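REVIEWER CHECKLIST
Item 1: Sequence provided? yes
Item 2: Single chain? yes
Item 3: Sequence as submitted:
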Amino acid sequence: MMMEEVLSSYGITEKNSGIRPFGTGLINTSWKITTEKGDFLLQQINDSVFKMPRDIMDNLALLTNHFSKNHPEYLFVAPLPSLKKKNFVRDRKNHVYRLFPFIKNSCSFDIVTDPQLAFEAAAQFGRFTRLLADFDPGRLLIPIRDFHNLRPRFDQFENSLQIAESKRKDESEEEIDFLQAGKGILRVYEDCIREKRLTVRVIHHDTKISNVLFDINSHKGLCVIDLDTVMPGYFISDLGDMFRTYLSPAAEDEPDLNKIEIREDYFREIVRGYSAEMLPVLSSGERRYFFYAGQFAIYMQALRFLADHLNGNRYYPVNYPNHNLIRARNQIDLLKKYQAKEPLFEKILKSIV
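Item 4: Structure as written out by the authors:
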């Protein structure tokens, strides 16, 4: 009944439609809707994560208007209007849904298996931010407060040490010591913000490969999707998260640290793709922080995983008791291996950036 109510708000009849779960996202719930008029993607916003879903939809309305007026050539996948001309609908339980067109001849990937995919994805995230260079980031509402603010993330980690059970602290002693010793990464971030070395821009903030649409035949990047975390931020967030999630073939909860590696060719292609779009708008000062971006993102994620473990797994879903501890160890090992590549990666950056 709930689905029928939602679809009818868009003039779609449930009994004449094919409906199936779609995608691998862990936050929102999505369905592919097949009708005689075409295919659509219906999505319910997770209001446990996004406390103010209306803010997200207001942001999308602003971005839709900007792209339609200033960059009509860009494939911006905007939510479709309901019969009441709104870009979302609510069901009787007050959950928020939105309907998107399903882009024909497109595909997405869950794993980066080719350096060319890394190049295309990086170029798309860079293009998205570059095309919004003339948009005032201050107009956007904040869907998740302090999402990529390293100071609160470090403070959350420190606070978790005060309330954690002794057993959890004991088994995490090595990881705790490493993250506390790595506080220099936080100091660089705070210096950048205080001295305004980085420009506030419209940033995606979730650059995993599955948030890019590719041409199904050529695998050329088409556009970025899943824009719920778009908000004001710094380029190191998007670039750093690509380094964090594309460089190693191992998943972020892989317990075998021997499987974690830093693929140099993927680093080069991420830099090439992002730079191809972003260099015209980045300042000379900002270009100094390409390598730092990876340290920033990996360190922050390690803090988040370990803090959640120490807090008793309140945020990230876990499949076994020490799942978040394994994730933290994984990210710490990734950071160590990434930092070991600094001399080589700085040479690569010098040749491109």
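Item 5: Key structural point noted by reviewer: The chain has two domains: 2-102, 115-352.
Item 6: Recommendation: ____
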